[in-house]
Amino acid sequence: MLFYKNSVSLLLNPNIYIIFAFLYVHKELNMYITKKAEHNLKAASLLIENELYAPSIHCSYYAGFQMSKRKLAECGITYDEQDQAARDLSTDSHNYIITTTEEYVSDPIKYRHNIGKLKRLRKKSDYLNQEIVKAEAEAAKTSAWDLFSILFE
Length: 153
Fold this sequence. Notes:
The protein is mostly helical.
């Protein structure tokens, strides 16, 4: 479950209970990817609390990406089909997941804004020789939560 004793901010998110209810109704189909996303969000919070901002962004991005894959699975595109489609189209699997997910959300502009922000921050965090500050780590975590709301509204 996503209830973390050490992270009060997660419990204060007003959308958390709606999101949890939806996620666990469909847990048989998606239990592993959901668990990975939960772990990534928990890790992001713990990393921020310990001032490890760069790796927290990586975790926030992957939480959002994993839930995007879950959304596609719930729309009938299995995980194997997602991977195969990306290979067949000779495209980056992340780009395939992101552009395809846009077709299945009620607000594709908000979805693209949040996943795009996460992707930019992750690239900066993982690949560039630039400092990541707390505000960026918090922004990434917020974008991941916003993605959850967009994906499952």
